Input
Amino acid sequence: MRRIGIWIAAGGLLLSTAACGGGSDGGAGPSTPKTQSLSVGFVAEPANLDFTSTEGAAIPQALLVNVYEGLVKLDQDGRIVPLLAEKWDVSEDRRTYTFTLRKNVTFSSGAAFTADDVVFSLDRVKSDWKLKIKSQLDVVDKVEKKDDSTAVVTLKKPSNGFLYSMATRLGAMFSRTGVSDLANKPVGTGPYVFGSWRRGDSIQLNANTSYWGAKPALSAITLKYFKDATAMNNALLTGGIDVISSVQAPESLQQFADPSRFQTIEGTTNGEVVLSMNNSRPPFNDIKARQAVRHAIDHKALLETAWAGRGQLIGSMAPPTDPWYEDRTGDYPYDPAKAKALLGGRTLNVKMRIPNLPYAVAGAQVVKSQLAQVGITAEIEPLEFPARWLDQVFTKGDYDLSIINHVEPRDMGIFADKSYYFRYDNPEFGKLLASADEGTEQQQIDDLKKAAKLLSDDAAADWLFLFPNLIVAKKGVTGLPKNAIAESFDFTALAKQ
Amino acid sequence: MTLYLIKRLAVLLASTVAAAVAVFAFMALLPGDPAEIALGVNATPEAVAELRARFGTDRAPVVQFLDWFGGLVQGDFGTSYVTSSPIGPQIGDRLGVTAVLVLGGMAVALVIAVPLGTFAAVHHRDPLGVAISAASQIGIAVPAFLAGILLVFVFAVQAQALPSGGYVPISEDPGEWLRGLLLPWASLGLVQGAVLTRYVRTAVLDVMREDYLRTARAKGRGSTGALWRHGLRNASIPVVTVLGLQLATLLVGAVVVERVFVIPGLGDLLLGGVAGRDLLLVQGVVMVLVAAVLLINFVVDVAYHLLDPRLR
Output
């Protein structure tokens, strides 16, 4: 132990000299105001910067809200709040949305933001976007400019999903003169502007000095990309970065236990870790077999063992930040005897084809041993993710059980598609979803509560737990978004003390 | 000699073409469809089909190969599925980083191996010489990435003396560039140095038993002086050959070490490409690596031929 103490003492000396020499705020002399920058570690690097034609969560994670802004955004509690629109009015028939825009907003190119840009951006979704999610805005009939600061959107039919979609990348506002090179030169209205990109390493965002809202507290943010979780942990331990945006394995948290150096923030995500069951082939085309699985799993013990107790038990396809969330963990309490009774003395042999991701591997082992208690023998087969898992399980549906974290927000609808790999087919469920989208907001909440209950009752799958959002940062970093429930990692409030 | 050179050149070209066929065939065998992976869990069958057509992966394998190989001959590596940008410049950027890593690793290996190997040979009966020999065995058994992880733990995490990873271009900050490369160089160089120490030791031992060295000693030169003047140059011939072979091993070691140290080199590009099934990118990188190895072997063969008159 003594030797380690010496290492740290010597290291501290070196570190302080290094900090003097290697600071990235080279321009900050005694006369200029204090400038500060932070560097945040992420797992996946964007393929390019154009989220209108390239899939991948990494692009909106870096750019949405930070560089591009929408008329509305999702706050930390999952509510839709104003951003570039000061307010909006919904007509009686719920088909017309009138957005009143903020004045004095400019794009980073200097161009003013007006209702013309709203029309341009929303029309562009239909005409130029290449992503599959653009169909979410198919419900839009027309977008019109009433005056410079008023835009009117008319829908084909009432839709609660519309406003929510407007809070995602689909609602991002582009400049009419700023879309010539989206892959490399994003132009938005956000608190930060794109600075530079060192491919394979990092992206730098600089503060937007002419931002319409509260000026960012930092002069620059570096998004640093790590393909290896250990390398990212080491970077925080050695001062290479200031924040780990999402800790990949909870075991690694103990390295950051020293409160005089680090802080750990635990919040929620939209990620339901689902134990998927193939509803279309034996044995899990039989509801009793699926129910037996749900009764056989001790979710509390599973969470403790597989994910160090971090996360939350949910019981159906809705996270607590959705307005229609209900605690459904009581639907199938842990009851091995009942599970055995449901199987009626049968024993089952099933294939559990899982992605080779830490949570899936850890969860699968617990699931396997718990299922064994009731007479279900599950053979675990880890598949390389994404390539082989997508091919075999997701596309071909060749599996009995699988485990995957469904990270998309408000994604209960995937159960309505009977060709989706769950192969769940219940027309009643689809009807509930349709009426939820067209009804009032209260109707939506009521219907989706019913839909979540139906999924749970049908044992369409089992919900192991809600994936936690674990952030570790150096002490003194403030304004970190606790919950990861929107598409972006919101830097707006980020600061350093 | 000219005939030999022509023959050897023909072999080089033939093996490059054979390698291209093999690389393409292996990629075709790899499970997973690039279009499915690009679209992820939101994909519809129509979107996948459309993307396949855009990638050109819906064509017959032979057509795809000829298209790719035809481009290669003209120096065109194609366009990446994932980033939709040309692959050639990407490989070019990364190749420079990997080259610096490999050459630095080689330098570290030489600095370690030549003095230690010679010392171990001269003192092969002393405890210290035996100890060096034994220690090098351990070095051989340690893979470069493990050495990297251990070095990071000791020098970056515990001592906080060096960065745990990352790469700063030399044009931005030469000091940080050097600091960032010290540990990667060490982890590649330590392992290769251990291997090389064994070869140096054997080569020097062989030379020490030669008659001309005994003669030199008999003529009054001290044993160290004799070795310096007559021994080391001769001992270096087999060592240089091994060095050429090791360059290939280092290139492979660099692929893994880059991941440990978050260095944006060819290996990093390759592993990312494999995970995303960016097949054209992977094919391009592997072809560059294969061509580099074939070229190194070619140069070593020719150089050997020039140096050793017995082979002519």
In short: The longest helix of chain B spans residues 223-260. Chain B touches chain A through 52 residues (CB under 8 Å). Residues 38 and 82 of chain B are 7 Å apart (CA to CA). Chain B has a mean pLDDT of 85.
